[in-house]
């Protein structure tokens, strides 16, 4: 036996303990996703409570198709304040332009999803630092539908980007199952990370050879209609919310999401794109070019959105030349 001096023993023990803690500490990306999951769940509860109160606090931002409600405002404050508190070096960009003000303590969520923390971070993202990550927040995707009672269209979106690429996303559906009655479990949260997969739903595909297009419900125009018809669809679904449309793709309700118009913003597509890409799908502009999500990029997706779980190339090949000419690529 070798007897070590107490000072050396203390040093050896602390060094090994601290290195063990560092080795077992989840990667920053997984911590951020785990926090975003918990924050999104809280956001879903806020959205439900505002609706139950009957006081939606609706204001028009730029017209009747561009609304903001109390739920939009409270959820953005909750998400941004909660994530900023836990990850002060992460850049967070939210849809709503809100005044700088103190955030009520009951809007802050400090929790994290233990299930997400237990999953291994993909190697390519394991050493990312907070300051390298950008979070895009849509506090209430499908606000117009929310005000009209089309609750299954509504989602809360938190997307995470690195190097301009959407690498992780969290989508909360506050009213999932709302039509099933009082006994049903209300709401759910989907999430995904590139290289790891996507969770919280059952991945399904539209049967081979069937073309079902999902597109905008309230922002249609001639370009959108022409692009949809050029896909030779067997059926067309018109619904609200980019998050809702991507969920339709991954759950086999639609085979492509076609929106040949400006209108969608980066906070609409970052989280849905990450989840779609995590299961092998593809989201681009109408020219087939990827959108980028770095902090300084313009917010508008000016060349539209074309997304599919499978056969993206087919849908891209069908886009009319007149549509491409009308939508200059970024």
Automatic annotation (TrEMBL):
InterPro entries in the record: CysQ/Inositol_MonoPase, Inositol_monoP_metal-BS, Inositol_monophosphatase-like, Inositol_monophosphatase_CS
Entry EC number(s): 3.1.3.57, 3.1.3.7
Protein name listed in UniProt: 3'(2'),5'-bisphosphate nucleotidase 1
EC main group: hydrolase
Cleaved signal peptide residues: 1-23
PANTHER family: 3'(2'),5'-BISPHOSPHATE NUCLEOTIDASE 1
Encoding gene, per UniProt annotation: LOC107695986
Top-level taxon of the source organism: Eukaryota
Binding site for Mg(2+): 95, 138, 140-141, 268
């Amino acid at each position: 036996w070798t007897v070590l001096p107490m000072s050396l023993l203390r040093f050896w023990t602390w060094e090994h303990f601290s290195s063990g803690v560092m080795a077992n500490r989840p990667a920053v990306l997984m911590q951020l996703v785990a926090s975003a999951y918990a924050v999104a769940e809280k956001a879903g509860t806020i959205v439900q409570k505002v609706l139950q109160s009957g006081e939606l606090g609706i204001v028009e931002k730029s017209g009747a198709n561009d609304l903001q409600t109390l739920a939009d405002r409270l959820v953005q404050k909750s998400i941004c304040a909660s994530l900023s508190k836990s990850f002060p070096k992460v850049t967070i960009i939210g849809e709503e332009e809100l005044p700088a003000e103190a955030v009520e303590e009951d809007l802050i969520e400090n929790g994290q999803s233990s299930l997400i923390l237990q999953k291994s971070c993909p190697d390519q993202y394991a050493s990312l630092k907070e300051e390298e990550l950008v979070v895009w927040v849509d506090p209430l995707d499908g606000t117009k539908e929310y005000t009209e009672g089309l609750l299954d269209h509504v989602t809360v979106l938190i997307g995470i980007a690195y190097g301009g690429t959407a690498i992780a996303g969290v989508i909360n559906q506050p009213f999932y199952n709302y039509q099933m009655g009082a006994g049903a479990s209300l709401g759910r949260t989907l999430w995904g990370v590139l290289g790891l997969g996507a969770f919280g739903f059952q991945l399904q595909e539209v049967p081979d050879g069937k073309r079902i297009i999902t597109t905008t419900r309230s922002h249609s125009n001639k370009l959108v209609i022409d692009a949809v018809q050029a896909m030779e669809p067997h059926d067309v679904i018109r619904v609200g919310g980019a998050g809702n449309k991507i969920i339709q793709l991954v759950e086999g309700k639609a085979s492509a999401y076609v929106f040949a118009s400006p209108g969608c913003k980066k906070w609409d597509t970052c989280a849905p794109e990450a989840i779609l890409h995590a299961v092998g799908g593809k989201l681009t502009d109408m020219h087939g070019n990827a959108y980028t999500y770095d902090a300084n990029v313009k917010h508008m997706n000016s060349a539209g959105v074309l997304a599919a779980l499978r056969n993206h190339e087919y849908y891209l090949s069908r886009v009319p030349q007149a549509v491409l000419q009308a939508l200059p690529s970024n």
